[in-house]
Amino acid sequence: ESSEGLKMLEFRRSLPAYKERDALLKAISENQVVVVSGETGCGKTTQLPQYILESEIEAARGASCSLICTQPRRISAMAVSERVAAERGEQLGESVGYKIRLEGIKGRDTGLLFCTTGILLRRLLVDRNLRGVTHVIVDEIHERGMNEDFLLIVLKDLLPRRPDLRLILMSATLNAELFSSYFGGAPMLHIPGFTYPVRAHYLENILETTGYRLTPYNQIDDYGQEKVWKMQKQTMRKRKTQIASAVEDTLEAADYNGYSHRTQDSLSCWNPDSIGFNLIEHVLSHICKNERPGAVLVFMTGWEDINSLKDQLQAHPLLGDPSRVLLLACHGSMASTEQRLIFDRPPEGVRKIVLATNMAETSITINDVVFVVDCGKAKETSYDALNNTPCLLPTWISKAAARQRRGRAGRVQSGECYHLYPKCVYDAFSDYQLPELLRTPLQSLCLQIKSLDLGGISEFLSKALQPPEPLSVQNAVDFLKIIGALDENENLTVLGQNLSVLPVEPKLGKMLILGAMFKCLDPVMTVVAGLSVRDPFMTPFDKKDLAESAKAQFSGREFSDHIALIRAYEGWKDAEKQQSGYEYCWRNFLSAQTFKAIDSLRKQFFSLLKDTGLVGLDNESQNKWSHDEHLVRAIICAGLFPGVCSVVNKERSIMLKTMEDGQVLLYSNSVNAQEPKIPYPWLVFNEKIKVNSVFLRDSTAVSDSVLLLFGGDISRGAQDGHLKMLGGYLEFFM
Ligand code: ADP
Ligand code: MG
């Protein structure tokens, strides 16, 4: 073997999981279900599947073994498979492969496949018994993602039918009992880990030792959005979460007598509702100036604040100097090429700083991290079942998550963790996070239950580890009926069947199908891809006005964020042909990366739609009416219905109302937010989100007749008789 190979082998043998190898294999061969827990980095994800693979090969069953290991996120499925292939001295696609929504590498001899949980659920659609699969490994179950909880119900159901199938559940925290008892007392194995000690610094210590001064002014400045901020604060007070009020209570009771006046003053200015960019900047420059070498991992809440923080840090004399600091981002929607940089060691004398979302808590291990900066928050979706509205708020993390974050600093040597909140706030955190199934709208999930033929929806969901509220389930079922995916008796309609194979939310899938039928596929695919990836329109804080007017130019007088998106994308396609895609994006405040993601998603839509038989082979006829923006607007309306609000034009402003929420507002980067008047009676929208008030992210104005015909009738038509009512319209257009 090469020395590289030997080194790898040595590394693998040094991991804590290696000592448990035989015990793990024995338990797996003797039990159908095994729960494995062990601290992050001990070797669960990369080693355990390999142990099984190797032992199957030793037992001469290598050719027939087929392991599937699910990951909650695309990027970890990819990163892990790459790592495992490298450990085996192979290329991806030999014994190890991966599959995620838009990509995958798998060969004839691939016995170990890493995939997203969603991909395995999709496979179950066409292969209910997972024929040929010998082992299913569900990773990161402690995260309690919706897909993972759902998969566990399905697998629990499947196990009696496949007595030879082995199920291994892997968790990074010690709540293994919960999963074990769900599977009738399955054996639990714990891999004792080893990490170096990590010193925790809470806000009071940070302020005391660095002398940094928090001021109320600074905090408002940090966010750059004073107005929103103030409004938020007022309403937050009204509808406070339990944790938020617990935090406030402890803060009131906290006593900092042992600290300097300066620190006490600072602490009284600390604002629990915002993330202080200036404080982060200060801590980072403190680390870079004073501390020993080692990478820094900063936990932020999401893509948006990572990007704004990155912008701010890039202007800093030390942190923005590429010869001294390598500034990287790590979040779920980054490009796959970007992710490799995170794992690489920076050049000598350069400090790596990774700004990450909570995905770096457990599923991704960056080896050289010595410092962790923890803002204490994560963006968590919650769901207000009463008003049938999803809410997206940065919320306090759990104690378990805070411990995880801290642990990331002790991988290779002892480390330091800077928690940017006082110790008493940590004490008020809840122990674990609420499972996603209990805080998300359930439409896609309910559609999947029907398409997998798993029986009655509420009955099925009542078998979950922690079942969702009946009202949430009812809302989802009602919605699927309204869009015509389910009939009155909760049976899947033809439309519903078609929707279940499209990897997007049901209503967006419906928009795609209508786009195909009405022969305006290209623009509709762009809208759907854009709505399911993310917004390509960027609004940097310091150039907000310029960015907004660039977007408004795309919309023209169409009063539509979606049409603006179509035009911006088409402009990018043209620019790409002339090799000036990046320049085009730069000029117009657009994200080239997002357009690339939209592009590949569009390709996938097209091939899936071809499979359904809804589009023919030639591209030309799919787009016979694509230039007709009235038709495209109508299809957008048909897809987004019943997401609609009425427009009331006032003297100098507009008032928007929906049936459920009363008054709603537009996000400031919507083209319609800049308009003094909207000459249409309705706006259709994809997403409303409760932050403080209810906000609409994106919207398209439509007329009465379009809303009635395309919003109302087409929905009903789809429901009544297998899209038969569409016939009339189709004749009109063909
Ligand atoms: P677990 O799943 O228990 O959290 P992993 O199997 O992901 O642990 O990782 C085991 C070890 O392998 C990590 O501690 C890390 O040292 C190493 N490792 C994992 N992924 C990579 C990678 N992409 N590059 C380099 N080392 C890695
Ligand atoms: Mg892991």
Question: What does this molecule look like?
Answer:
Helix 24 (506-517) packs antiparallel against helix 25 and helix 25 packs across helix 27. The protein has 734 residues and is α/β, with parallel strands linked by helices. It has 33 helices and 23 strands. The site of magnesium ion has 4 residues, from helix 4. Residues 279-453 form the Helicase C-terminal domain.
Question: What's the topology here?
Answer:
Elements lengths: L2 H12 L1 H4 L1 H10 L2 E6 L5 H15 L8 E5 L2 H14 L8 E4 L4 E2 L6 E5 H10 L8 E4 L7 H13 L7 E6 L4 H7 L5 E4 L6 E4 L1 H8 L5 H8 L2 H13 L3 H12 L7 H9 L7 H14 L4 E5 L3 H12 L10 E6 L5 H8 L7 E6 L2 H4 L6 E6 L2 E8 L4 E8 L2 H9 L7 E5 L3 H6 L14 H9 L5 H5 L8 H13 L11 H7 L5 H12 L3 H12 L11 H12 L5 H17 L3 H8 L3 H21 L6 H4 L6 H12 L3 E6 L4 E5 L3 E5 L15 E4 L2 E3 L3 E3 L2 E4 L1 H17 L5 H8 L1
Parallel strand pairs: 1-7, 1-8, 2-5, 2-6, 3-5, 6-7, 9-16, 10-12, 10-13, 11-12, 13-16, 19-22
Antiparallel strand pairs: 3-4, 14-15, 17-18, 17-20, 18-19, 20-23, 21-22
Helix pairs in contact: 4-5, 9-13, 20-22, 20-23, 23-24, 24-25, 24-31, 25-27, 25-29, 26-27, 27-28, 31-32
The chain binds adenosine-5'-diphosphate (ADP) and magnesium ion.
Report the biggest beta sheet as strand number plus sense, adding barrel if it closes: 8 strands, mixed
The end-to-end distance, rounded to whole angstroms, is: 66 Å
Characterize the overall form: globular
Identify the bound ligands.
Answer: adenosine-5'-diphosphate, magnesium ion
Helix content: 40-55%
Radius of gyration: 26 Å
Classification by helices and strands:
alpha/beta
Show unreliable segments.
217-240, 717-734
> Strand share of the residues?
15-25%
> DSSP helix count?
33
Strand order of the largest sheet: 4-3-5-2-6-7-1-8
Count every beta strand, where a strand is a DSSP E run of 2 or more residues: 23
Mean pLDDT: 87
Organism: Chenopodium quinoa
EC number: 3.6.4.13
GO molecular function, one term: RNA binding
Domain Helicase C-terminal: 279-453
